[in-house]
């Protein structure tokens, strides 16, 4: 932990985070909230301690990715629920990487739930709560100016590298990385970088032995003990990294 930066104007409030200005124009302060939403916020709840766990898990994973060559917006964790990140213009394309078919892929295409994919599937969605983040293809993003061809190729390459690194890490923790969602941004110099968060809110984790779900699906599917699952992810990361 380090010194707390000035908490300036609230710039943005999302479903799981608040973003504040700081006195450094290149940095923002992110506050992780305890609110939990699913199905485009049709289902909502508040879980005391969720923000803290996601802040810690996300900080740990962003640091791990940076240490392994994946530049990202995370700068430092400042306390239990806050982290400092580089200021970015977010590209309105959410990228989903899947190793196992489940969730919306199964709903959309009727393929077998739990099917191990022969190679990681990278999907793009247009980031729009109003439209429910619809699935798009590469050319939609280029045509409508959400990202250019080169940026999308770079994004796909980073997603595959993140998948390789995270799948390897979680495998060592006894966890299968089923799928996850990433977001990207451009910094003040136009450099493309991984942004947003990497947490049990945005990933699917299955225990290798028991196949228990250790992520937000416990909330989406009313499986109970949501916080216990998030705690388990954090405990295994702490043990692994000695933190
Ligand atoms: P999906 O199967 O519902 O499309 O979800 C794929 C992955 O993306 C899963 O790990 C959860 C994550 N995700 C988000 O982080 N935010 C979202 O809004 C959605 C729909 C999924
Ligand atoms: N994050 C989205 C929502 O709040 C959907 C989801 O993760 O299931 O509504």
Short description:
The chain is an alpha+beta fold.
What is the topology?
Elements: E1 10-13, E2 17-21, E3 27-32, E4 35-38, E5 43-46, H1 50-67, E6 74-77, E7 82-86, E8 89-90, E9 93-100, H2 103-109, E10 116-126, E11 135-136, H3 138-143, H4 149-172, E12 175-186, E13 192-195, E14 203-207, H5 217-220, H6 226-241
Antiparallel strand pairs: 1-2, 2-3, 3-7, 4-5, 6-7, 8-12, 9-10, 9-12, 10-11, 12-13, 12-14
Bound molecules: thymidine-5'-phosphate (TMP) and aspartic acid.
Describe this structure in words.
The model has no long low-confidence stretch (mean pLDDT 97). A hairpin with a 3-residue loop joins strand 1 (10-13) and strand 2 (17-21). The chain has 243 residues and is α+β, with helices and mostly antiparallel strands. 34% of the residues are buried. The strands form three sheets. Strands 8, 9, 10, 11, 12, 13 and 14 form a seven-stranded antiparallel beta sheet that branches. The chain has a five-stranded antiparallel beta sheet with strand order 1-2-3-7-6. Helix 1 packs parallel to helix 6. The chain has helices spanning 50-67, 103-109, 138-143, 149-172, 217-220, 226-241; strands at 10-13, 17-21, 27-32, 35-38, 43-46, 74-77, 82-86, 89-90, 93-100, 116-126, 135-136, 175-186, 192-195, 203-207. The chain binds thymidine-5'-phosphate and aspartic acid.
């Amino acid at each position: 932990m380090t010194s707390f930066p000035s908490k300036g104007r609230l710039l943005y409030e999302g479903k799981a985070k608040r973003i504040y200005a700081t006195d450094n124009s290149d940095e923002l302060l992110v506050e992780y909230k305890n609110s939990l939403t699913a199905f485009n916020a049709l289902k909502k709840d508040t879980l005391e301690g969720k923000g803290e766990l996601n802040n810690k898990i996300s900080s740990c994973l962003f640091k791990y990715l940076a240490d392994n060559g994946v530049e990202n917006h995370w700068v430092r964790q400042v306390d239990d629920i806050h982290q400092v990140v580089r200021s970015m213009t977010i590209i309105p394309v959410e990228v989903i990487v899947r190793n196992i078919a489940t969730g919306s892929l199964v709903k959309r295409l009727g393929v077998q739930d739990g099917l191990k994919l022969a190679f990681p599937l990278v999907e793009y969605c247009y980031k729009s709560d109003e439209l429910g983040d619809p699935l798009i293809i590469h050319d939609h993003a280029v045509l409508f100016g959400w990202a250019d061809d080169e940026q999308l190729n770079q994004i796909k390459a980073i997603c595959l590298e993140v998948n390789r690194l995270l799948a390897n890490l979680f495998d060592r923790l006894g966890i299968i990385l089923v799928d996850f969602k990433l977001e990207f941004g451009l910094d003040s110099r136009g450099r493309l970088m991984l942004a947003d968060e990497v947490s049990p809110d945005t990933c699917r984790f299955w225990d290798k032995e028991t196949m228990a779900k250790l992520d937000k699906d416990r909330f989406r599917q009313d499986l109970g003990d949501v916080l216990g699952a998030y705690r388990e992810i954090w405990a295994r990361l702490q043990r692994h990294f000695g933190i």
